[in-house]
């Protein structure tokens, strides 16, 4: 019995020592924090609120992508950082590891507590982060969405990367230029009921009929956004239409699969391939001459514009109302459209000359 | 009963407990977690800017509320030596059911009721496969994890039901007037009291511990093992469904992929709170402290601008440490006892043994 008592006493002593160490660690770290900021005498709490006040005026803008470790958002946030460095603000990037609907909420709450000036967010869910964003706005934080919008009443501005019309127009322009404005073309789309793609295809048909009477759209096939299916559909198109001069694929999966087929077939260089793709997926096909040009928006410009829009909101130059206009550094002047939307511009065309500048 | 009368007549030669009450309450795994929670809170309040603001508590509790709900029945299930991995999928299924019934124009109280019934059915399916068919809970609930999630996503596809009335969404996110405590905590505290009484102060609760110690011995002592487990899995389904309703109202969005992966958060917190994964020991106050500890750490690290990967690394390390430490200390203690044994083997082995046996009784609400 005595031994057991002693052992317990020893355990308790060990616990007490551990607790003391923890407390000591805590008190020393508290010394650090109270001494390092300018006012050494003020308690930590008021210090932190001072920080919040100054950063509020100092254009602290935080980017909150759908998730971290995503090359697309790395590029857009780098664009935002460039802009924020230009106008002397404080750039930060936070985000969840996975793009689940609610994951961004706790980050938005944290930013509200930190009292940042503005948040630039690409929403994982249009509704789930709404109340958190509105809490932030009530606390004076300006909210700009980019790439992926929330409901319009939860943010001040949405930076729209491209319109449906703009995407349709650039694809028609590219294919017309690549095939000399005459001949047969086909479209390799995603799934048969893909909303975005179907809207673009309808607009492309209208533009083709109006402006390019010599181009004949012979078929629209669906690769289901599956690499192998898209590859097979490309092969089938070339066999069915021997006179085919070009393929337009308004989906990143389709254009890559089609380019891969063409690059190894004898049709390489004779049948044009264009559409919407990402530089990393298309790089080798642009370099080997399979594809002359393809389009997408420039995510770096998107982040750059989001940062400048946030700055204009924080400084009070604009309120997000329709017709407001602001300067966005190297991109020039922008005007707010209906529903607090700012359009980045026409899609960005990637070709052999500029593809080396992009990594996403 | 007859045993008790015999014991009263025969004078005992040993004490009721090997340790005085304060030791039994304070020198436990659970209290270590509580102390860690308080320490982390104090350190964060001093070292992390903005952490000491009351709003931190609001956001923190809102974030962990769903996990707290599910942790209540999960604690009891793990104490019996079983596990329920399907809880997050039940959250998703209940969220989707709530959305679909709301969209169909059913009044919200009935939507909640339907969701809870769906949760109970989901729990019954788990319980049936485990207790009647006799399959291991790990295998069953991995299966239903996929099954319930599949149903949830299948019912709604990739769409979401939104636009719940403000009165109900506010109920999920509002705070008790004059305090930073979210209103949802009122429901939680009521449930916590019920579960604490059930686990620590009823024959049913004693049975839960007995099953975890030895299912066979419990059966021979008259514990209805299957029925107890069935009730626990149904409770787990209902509480997960309640968490699903809360989750939906809090984020205003009923989606099939809501709360994906939450089961790991729940189980991590329960284990961190001192519940043995092998069953037989644990207490609710440790689990609550475990949930709050993980939540507080994440909240403080986020405020300190630590990235999500590092937060995961820290939480993971903490969890591994918490699971490994009891075995390590037990090993160290037995080694120490053995080295002492040369001088007084009889009392040393006696001293080493009682804690292992009496620890389940260390729960504070048990006696006095």
Residues in helices of chain B, as a percent range = over 70%
Largest interface: pair, residues per side: A-B, 52 and 54 residues
Strand order of the main beta sheet of chain A, please?
2-1-3-4-5-13
Named CATH architecture of chain B: Orthogonal Bundle
Which strand order does the major sheet of chain B show? 1-2
**CATH class (first level) name of the largest domain in chain A:** Alpha Beta
Q: H/E element string of chain B? A: HHHHHHHEHHHHHEHHH
Distance between the termini of chain B: 20 Å
Largest sheet of chain B: 2 strands, antiparallel
Report the uncertain regions of chain B.
344-368
- What is the radius of gyration of chain B computed over CA atoms, rounded to a whole number of angstroms? 22 Å
- Helical content of chain A (DSSP H or I, runs of 4+): 40-55%
> Please, how many helices of chain A?
11
Number of strands of chain B: 2
The name CATH uses for the topology of the largest domain in chain A is Rossmann fold
β-strand amount of chain B = under 5%
CATH-level-2 architecture of the largest domain in chain A: 3-Layer(aba) Sandwich
- Cα end-to-end separation of chain A: 69 Å
Please give a handful of descriptors for the protein shown.
heterodimer; A: 360 residues; alpha/beta; Rossmann fold; 2 domains; 11 helices; elongated; disordered N terminus; B: 368 residues; mainly alpha; ABC transporter involved in vitamin B12 uptake, BtuC; 15 helices; disordered C terminus
What does this structure look like?
The complex is a heterodimer of chains A (360) and B (368). Chain A is of the alpha/beta class. Helices cover 48% and strands 18% of the residues of chain A. In chain A, helix 3 (71-86) packs across helix 11 (299-315). By secondary structure, chain B is mainly α. Chain B is 74% helix and 1% strand. In chain B, strands 1-2 form a two-stranded antiparallel ribbon. In chain B, helix 13 (262-272) packs across helix 15. Chains A and B meet through helix 1, helix 2 and helix 4 of A and helix 3, helix 4, helix 14 and helix 15 of B.
